[in-house]
Amino acid sequence: MARPPAAAITVPLLDLHAQYAPLRDDLLAALTRVADSQQYILGAEVEACERDLAARLDVAHAIGVSSGTDALLAALMALGVGPGAEVITPTYSFFATAGSVARLGATPVFVDMDPVTFNITAEAIARAITPRTRAVVVVHLFGLAVDMPAIRAVTDRAGIPVVEDAAQAIGARVGGRQVGSLGAVGCFSFFPSKNLGAFGDGGLVTTNDDALAHEVRLLRNHGMEPRYHHARIGGNFRLDAIQAAVLRVKAPHLQAWTDARRRNADRYRALADDLDLTPHVVLPVEPEGYRHIYNQFVVRVADRDALRAFLADRGIGTEIYYPVPFHRQACFRDLVIDDAAYPEADRAAATTMALPIYGELTAAQQQHVMTSIAAFVAARS
Ligand SMILES: *Cc1c(COP(=O)(O)O)cnc(C)c1O
User: Fold this and answer.
1) Arch. (CATH architecture) of 253-380
2) Would you state the pLDDT for residue 3?
3) What is the CATH number of domain 19-252?
């Protein structure tokens, strides 16, 4: 068969069809099983999914919830975060990280990030702690764990619980241990673009603390125990049986999908080396002792917006995570004393972009991405 011309190769940022096709029969059988059971809310599918994920994530408790956002909300509620409390969060993350804090009437306190890992640091957290700090939300951004040993040294000394926003980092490790088990409570998302995606919204709260687990279980179902008796004001943060059934089919493949993403990351590195791109494009790092799961492969470049347009013309999808840090969001304007206090986040917002990294990418697609970047660099220099 003749090879298609290079220009015919397209590289979407994410292609869910490629993952779905080989699992289609198993997934449709799982959906049929739920339909035949006519049991849609919590129940046996959700419990089986929770047991499976608790074992895979190496935690005592895994509680299925309606989204990653609601995982954060329930976790913060379980920790007693509310009006008058300050919660330290990175300024550079998906909105839910800080939005869930603000929705509870608490004050998110933003801190800047490490320019190499993009993650929140122990030093920045230490500087932001006040007598009103009730929790710290760390985000394992793009799939790379934060330096949890250093962060725990700071937060344990201050007696402050850490919430792990692990929405982008399922299966990531630091020091051999998985995220979601390293703080008081972990929060995962099954949004379809995450490494483990459902057929819609879903999330998970993890913890090794029996009392916190009990509290989250109550809160996800209106604080109800027993039926129609409410000792707490919770919400409807329940995971659907349909999503749980889909996750049970997909979870056994997560390790292989993550390995494929890691292989693709290595392939990009090799291509960037071969094409002499390393002076022009800063690729993501995986520090010693960490396992990056590459939910996103975020690079730094000069002329970011021009390069994105150039790549779009060549059929290559990219995205900016994130163009507007929290300290520049209109809804948080009143919280920010000095908007020049976050230079690394501002720099990242102006210079970074995500390249396609999903597991089913082909070598030819990756070659097309990197040779296109090389063509852009050559035209500019
Ligand atoms: C995706 C994401 C969330 C929210 O998850 P949803 O399931 O979309 O509600 C929270 N935090 C981070 C860092 C995320 O990437």
Assistant:
1) Alpha-Beta Complex (3.90)
2) 54
3) 3.40.640.10
